[in-house]
Amino acid sequence: MLDLRWIRAEPEALDRALARRGAEPASAQILALDERRRAAQTAFQEVQSRRKDLSKQIGQAKAKGEDASAPMAEVERLKDRIAAAEADEKSAAEEIDALLSTLPNVLADDVPDGPDESANVELRRVGAPPVLDFEPRDHQAIGEGLGGLDFERAAKLSGARFVVMQGQVARLHRALAQFMLDLQTGEHGYTETNTPVLVRDAALYGTGQLPKFAEDSFQTTDGFWLTATSEITMTNLVAGEILAEGDLPIRRTAHTLCFRSEAGSAGRDTRGMIRQHQFEKVELVSITTPDQAAAEHERMTACAEEVLKRLGLAYRVVVLCAGDTGFGARKTYDIEVWLPGQAAYREISSCSNCGDFQARRMNARFKPAGGKGNVFVHTLNGSGLAVGRTLVAVLENYQQADGSVIIPEVLRPYFGGNNRIGGEPS
Q1: Is-catalytic flag, 74?
Q2: Are residues 390 and 307 in contact, defined by beta-carbon separation less than 8 angstroms?
Q3: Is residue 350 flagged as an active site residue?
Q4: For residues 426 and 170, what is the distance between their CA atoms, to the nearest angstrom?
Q5: Could you say which of 37, 171, 260, 420 is catalytic?
Q6: Which residues does 19 contact at the CB level (< 8 Å), separation at least 6?
Q7: Tens-digit pLDDT profile for residues 330-386
Q8: Which of 47, 151, 182, 405 has its CA 20 to 30 A from that of 239?
């Protein structure tokens, strides 16, 4: 949610910010609604003041035994004006909130301009893609060959964009999630958190999924939403709270099921596990003060990168351009891992600084040490990492000509020391 006071003070800045995202200007509409709301508020206050004066007159007249019928009649007539002013103020305020809830976050100044992912800027590459002396297969062919990925039976159960994992591939998937949690909690200071995957409207509104992106989520028949990411739940843990500055930053991580309808993605990544309705992710969330947020963004991205470094996977980091940055983010880094089966880098993590955008929607604040008043916190989130896509990367990068897959060294403790799937363990 954007700051209405800022929009009043700098309406042109709002329209410039929207233009960077390719959106239409909105300041004139917001200011007109705001003027209507304030006019209704003034009218309400004036009528209330008049009613207060009349009530005083009535009391005085009755005390003196005088006729109070005239002021009483006027009070009666004022009731309709009060109700009308109240209704108009409420209507205008609701229209302002509804409009503000659809406006994206204001981008950081250093976010590059551009219409779409073609304008994203590569910041660095880490590691070299493996050189294979055979034609690489994609993860679906590898996983099916190992008897560990079954898309056909998953489709029988649930339809397209689902998979059944079994055997050593399922164990590899579990090991990856365990390794990520152990790394983020044991070395990076994140607190392990286990949160619900069913939430109410307010939680999705708080992090920006509602009302604009309702079609991207699944909803139950009794009003719950299936979470697309534990960013939603971990961030909303501070909704409505006033935190102490000394308690910040708060860093949390969770391994959860995630659910996405993938609305609008028809025909994209239909093969394999890249884009599914149900998947697992280890999420990172930070709650900070405004002056901590930029450094925390770099730190969070480094924590996500470390997973790929330990796994020995080649990747690159890009900063998203204005047209590709998500609705609630001020600035986003994407981490893209190399996939030999596609001969391309593919997104495996997005790390975003949301500023106070989510905090305003959640009313999450902190009390500055030695300062007056309360200040909105800043929120950040990132994948550390998407477990299924990491499985894809391990299968493709560590595949062998005989169809087996070498287990990365850091994962071998989760396999009793075995170093290979599909071959003779050693």
Answers
A1: no
A2: yes
A3: yes
A4: 20
A5: 260
A6: 25
A7: 999 999 999 999 999 999 999 999 999 999 999 999 999 988 899 999 999 999 999
A8: 182
- Is residue 426 one of the residues assigned to a domain? no
Same domain, 253 and 315: yes
Which residue matches tokens 């996405």? Answer: 260
Range of the domain at 59: 4-100
Selected catalytic residue, list 144, 347, 404, 412: 347
Per the CB < 8 A criterion, the answer to whether 304 and 315 are in contact is no
Average pLDDT, the chain: 95
Q: Is the dihedral of CA 387, 392, 393, 394 positive or negative?
A: positive
144: annotated active-site residue: no
Active-site residue, selected from the candidate residues 171, 389, 396, 420? 389
Report the alpha-carbon distance of residue 126 to residue 297 in Å, rounded: 19
Does the active-site annotation cover 347?
A: yes
Provide CB contacts within 8 A for 156, sequence distance 6+: none
Clarify whether residues 132 and 82 are in a common domain: no
Strands (E) in 169-223, as ranges, are 191-192, 198-199, 218-219
